Amino acid sequence: MKALLIPLDDRPVTYVFPSMIANSAGIEIIAPPRSLMGSLFHAAQIDSLIGWINTTLERTPPDVVIIGLDSILYGGLITSRRCEDPAKTVSKRLAGLRKWRPPGKDKPKIFAQSSIMRISDNYDNTEEKQYWARYGREIFAWSQVMYRMAKNGKANSGLLESFERRIPAEIRDDYLKLRFRNFQINQEIVDLVSDNVIDRLIISVDDSGPQGLNVLEREKLIQKAEQLRLNKRIFSYPGADEVLDTLLASWLYDQLRSLGVKIRARTVFSPASAANCPSRYEGQTIGETIEAQIRATGIEFAGKLEPAGPETANTVDITIVIHGSEVQGDHILLPGLPDLRQVDTRSQTRETISMLEKATTPCVLCDVAYANGADPVLSEELIQRPDLLSKLIGYAGWNTTGNTTGSALAMGIARLYSIRTQRRNEATDRAFQRCIFTRLADDWAYQTRVRPQLNSDASIDQLAQLIKPYLGRIGQSMKFDPGNLRVSFPWKRTFELEVCFEDR
Questions:
Q1: Residue 58: burial class (beta carbons within 10 Å; 0-12, 13-18, 19+)
Q2: Of 218, 284, 286, 411, which has the fewest beta carbons less than 10 angstroms from its beta carbon?
Q3: pLDDT tens by residue, 135-168
Q4: Cβ distance 454 to 494 under 8 Å?
């Protein structure tokens, strides 16, 4: 089985990690040269990338194409917020998908991701247009006002003008022009699902509050999908970087179902109240994100999605453990926002450990007690319990609730796929161990232990020296020799880490 993977950009979590998950399932991944992909400060080589895709489809036909459409439409996720190409140009690129599957053929399947342009409530312009450094929070507030007016069905010109006066007209015009173009293209993408060009679509909502123009666009796209009766093929929820993992997992699960194999899951929250906890950067609760992520994979619930529920060997294949908190912490402190870098998670850690101890099925552990990194209290407990680590078929604790949950679930489905289809062997076992090792190294060792010790101009040598003891502890606990490792800052900043295995 072969999958053609076109990532959102060249980051490890989008370019490398989906391939690692696929390898753990015994699936061959075909991916474009990394040099063609977009990065933080430059767009993908769009024409070359599209040419490479077309040539590959002709010479090495895959079973499925899993694609982050932003790469071929705008040059990547980041550049989708900066790209000045007119709608006509972008639409022409999108129309090229119609040539990917010959008439009368059912392969390759096309599983696609498109993103809704985000609205960040901060003054950080690292991933935005330059004017975000001065007007970011004003644009966010203005967007909320327009959302409320649209929902109320009436205009309050005085209120709107008071918010618009805070932002120069030329900036408002530029921002709305980009939003309208991207929204227009997303509507065309939905049409491709209706025309059976795209088999499954996830419209991801990156970095959102509960209100805003991005939320309004999402509601309109969902309404259109419902009108076209595409509810079972189009999904939309908070997330971005993990979505290709989810698409891969949903395709793998489709293969299992074609063989008569189902995966039934029990979901438990630690503490139970974590299901109702607001999820940072997502505009909804942790429970809502968890449910959306599970449904997108196709996994069946063993009963309703609840904070806790019955478990029997006959009705449950996996246990999804959600390690949360009363208030979701955040390892990053943003100006003007509360400091949530120290959250007391001792009681829920004891509860999570107990859940893992009692589980009679393989477990997927989603650590969402914090945004932007794992819970250090739980991680220390896990590292000291190799018996519990060996129960995990999926684990993550990075960035947002959606990022964590989508990638952890994908790992679990890939692992079960290798087992149920007799693809489990030394190679898939090692690929799976690398997945777990990478997440522990990034989410715990780096994000919660090493990164707080670094400044913005940290060197690779300093990074390697600080993280080495933690990598040793992870390998020892997992009883896994990762071989020679290299660590780096792939985007020349401390936000991302890349752990490179010697034969990658």
A1: exposed
A2: 284
A3: 999 999 999 999 999 988 776 778 899 999 999 9
A4: yes
